[in-house]
Amino acid sequence: MNSKLRIEAARLDWLLYPALIFAASRLLVFAAGLVGDAFLPTEAGHWVADPNSPFLSLWAKWDSQWYIQIVREGYWFQPLQQSNVAFFPLYPLVTRLALPLAGGNAVLAGFLVSNLALFGALIFLYKLAELELGERACPERSRRDGARRTIAYLAFFPTAFFFSCVYTESLFLLLSVACIYWARRRWWLAAAVAGMLAAATRNLGVVLWALATWEWLRCQGWQLAQAHRREMWRALWAGVKARWPEALLLAAIPLGLLLYIVFLKFNFDRPLAFVEAQAAWGRQQIGPVAVLAREFAALADFQLNKSGLSRLLNVGAIVAALALVPFIWRRLGEGYALYVLILVLVPISSAAMSVIRYVLTLFPVFIVLGGWGRRPVVDRMLLAAGAVGLGVLTTIFVNWIFVA
């Protein structure tokens, strides 16, 4: 009986282990939030998301105000001012759909959406990491262990508390990983739907079109290392001619962004209102080199205060993500590496702010770390550093100190 139970548990590991990691990481996040709220001082005058629930209010800070406002009142736009059109529609739409489950409470609805999306994202990331990781000596066990480490490093990352907040991180991660997992399984329609929804969650979701199409081309025979060989191009052309409708399906991914543009044109006669609104947050396109030069110059005069801590975290996240790109290329392929590179360089073309949060959705980073963690020392170091950082930053965040 014990043997049968172990076999059945191994078969269900894709569900059971994500459930365990979800429960353990959220227990740490919620405990740290409650302790931080109880024992650390908070400046008076801040917005309270739900006066009847201090616990829910812990997970609705900063940008959460905008999402809750969209759920309750809809979109509005004022030129040259901070406007809620800067925030893409799918997350508030799903939150609004969840209102009946939350008794009409928009904060509770957002909290539920975020946490359920996180659980789904952990499951899909586990499955994707199983496809990407594995050693020749013991492929099944190494894939499972690598997938376990991948989701653990993600769930205990220092800013992973955002997955439980009224923010888009968990929903965007779920849709992004689902899109690529289904593309890897060659379920192109499902990949296209998930990618389209991701593009309606964040503007950079449109980059999934390139990554999913890259995977489709790879299935037709494309190999960058073989690009100089005529035989590869012949095989690619034959595959494209035979299976072009699949590529046409993937071309639906940008519709998530395009539909939002049409909505803005119809309602405000400003199809790119979300770009205009972002400028009111001080985001102006000056290029990643100029942004990094500015941030490093500021760090030269570093002071351990609120702004100094945020800058240090964001610059560290940028440097670490860029440093990992070659390793992602080597382990997972050029498609994943270029995806990470784009999702880092585009935001820092205007500002380094919030990058420590944005890296949460760079799932190829965590898959590579999951491979590295097969060394026990590395595994313990990553988990310990992540858990400590997660506890500390959660206590900071719930006290209205800006993290990302």
Write the topology of this structure.
Layout: H1 2-11, H2 13-39, H3 54-58, H4 64-73, H5 90-97, H6 106-132, H7 139-155, H8 169-184, H9 188-199, H10 207-219, H11 230-250, H12 255-268, H13 273-279, H14 288-299, H15 306-332, H16 334-345, H17 355-358, H18 363-372, H19 376-397
Helix pairs in contact: 2-6, 2-7, 2-19, 4-5, 5-6, 6-7, 6-8, 7-18, 8-9, 8-10, 9-10, 9-11, 10-11, 10-16, 14-15, 15-16
Structure description:
This protein has one domain. The chain contains 19 helices and no strands. The protein has helices spanning 2-11, 13-39, 54-58, 64-73, 90-97, 106-132, 139-155, 169-184, 188-199, 207-219, 230-250, 255-268, 273-279, 288-299, 306-332, 334-345, 355-358, 363-372, 376-397. Helix 2 packs across helix 6. The longest helix has 27 residues, at 13-39. The radius of gyration is 22 Å and the shape is globular. The mean pLDDT is 91.
